[in-house]
Write a sequence for this structure.
């Protein structure tokens, strides 16, 4: 097995903790980034679960369609009158088309629901990140010394 380069053994968190940058709260930045990773992980889980639900429902719909097709084919063989057969085939084609449209609508709604859940989760985290960054900036700004006024007083004309 090939030896990993030393770069991969480098501990970034230790390096960042050792750096003391004035006005920058590295612990808060690391905590914020950890929350971002958790949010992305949850978003991926939600997206995966949504796709899983869609695929399961598609499989279920396919199974139902195949069962209905088998029943229809069997009942069509019993028909003697060609006009009755054509009328029945027309009705069945219409019902099949309506069912297909209904199924497509259901799949679309399932996907939209899943996408909305993922979007809401990511949007919430994005808003929280902006608030955290603003808080860090406000905290850093509050920790700065006040600007010194020029010596010598003011001259009013």
């Amino acid at each position: 097995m090939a030896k990993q380069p030393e770069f991969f053994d480098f501990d970034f968190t230790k390096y960042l903790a050792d750096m003391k940058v004035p006005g920058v709260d590295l612990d808060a930045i690391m905590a914020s980034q950890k929350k971002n990773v958790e949010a992305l992980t949850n978003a991926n889980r939600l997206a995966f679960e949504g796709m899983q639900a869609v695929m399961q429902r598609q499989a279920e719909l396919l199974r139902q369609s195949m069962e209905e097709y088998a029943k229809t084919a069997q009942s069509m063989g019993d028909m003697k009158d060609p006009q009755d057969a054509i009328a029945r085939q027309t009705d069945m084609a219409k019902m099949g088309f309506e069912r297909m449209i209904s199924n497509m609508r259901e799949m679309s709604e399932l996907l939209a629901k899943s996408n909305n859940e993922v979007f809401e989760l990511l949007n919430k985290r994005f808003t929280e990140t902006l608030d955290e960054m603003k808080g860090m900036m406000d905290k850093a700004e509050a920790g700065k010394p006040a600007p010194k006024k020029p010596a010598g007083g003011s001259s009013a004309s």
